[in-house]
Amino acid sequence: MILGDDGIGVHVAQELAREIRDENIDVRDVSVDGLNLLELIVGYDRLVVIDAIMTEVGEVGEIYRIKPENVCDPSCSAISPHHFNLATTIEIGKKLFPMEMPEEVTVFAVGTREVARVTEEMTSKVKEAIPKVVNLVLEQVDPANKYRGAGHALGSNIPSNCHRKPQNNACQR
Questions:
Q1: Per residue in 105-120, is it b (16+ CB within 10 Å) or e — as a string?
Q2: CB burial of residue 27 (10 Å; 0-12, 13-18, 19+)
Q3: Which element (helix H / strand E) includes 111?
Q4: Measured between alpha carbons, how far is 86 from 47 in angstroms, rounded to an integer?
Q5: What's the pLDDT score for residue 157?
Q6: 160 or 57, higher pLDDT
Q7: Short-list 167, 168, 151, 107, CA closest to 18
Q8: 66: left (phi over 0), alpha (psi -120 to 50) or beta
Q9: By three-state DSSP, how is residue 44 classified?
Q10: Is 105 within 8 Å of 71 (Cβ atoms)?
Q11: CA 123, CA 103: separation in Å to the nearest integer?
Q12: CA–CA distance from 1 to each of 10, 84, 118 (Å)?
């Protein structure tokens, strides 16, 4: 893997795939955006996206729970439709497939200083966030702990620094 800290979603998706035992929950490790992502999320009730985020004031390894509409104004998107941000992709999907788009979309983003550095190693603080993000996703998609293995007990690793503010997916049908 040569993604460095930007590979947080890949690592979390791998852990989630080992933990979740529900045929109605798909865990996918995808590295697409824009309209390419749209075709993967149509038909799901809920969507969870895990990714790295660069912030001006946040700490490396800090975990954010955010809604796509709070990330960026959908009108401020990329020039190419292949690189629309998540908020724009969701808005387009709602217009094209109003009855088939996820009703609930949550992004778990982990703070980093570098997303473009080519390296096999993640920084230690981002690596430490992996089990915490796994637990947060498990708590969201399976709060009753009915469909997962015994590997993660909820509450034990939930971070105190998880804030509710500003491509890899756990999708639930």
A1: bbbbbbbbeeeeeeee
A2: buried
A3: strand 104-112
A4: 11
A5: 38
A6: 57
A7: 151
A8: beta
A9: coil
A10: no
A11: 34
A12: 9, 25, 9
Q: How many CB atoms lie within 10 A of CB 139?
A: 14
Q: How far is CA 157 from CA 18, 97, 134, in A?
A: 17, 37, 9
In the block, residue with structure tokens 């709602």: 94
Q: Tell me if 37 sits within 8 A of 91, measured CB to CB.
A: no
Cβ neighbour number for residue 88 with a 10 Å cutoff:
23
- Would the pTM count as exceeding 0.85? no
Q: pLDDT value at position 145?
A: 74
pLDDT given at position 148: 63
| CA-CA-CA-CA dihedral for 123, 129, 130, 135, to nearest 10 | 180
Residue in the block written with tokens 């975990």: 63
Rounded-to-integer distance, Cα 53 and Cα 5, Å: 9
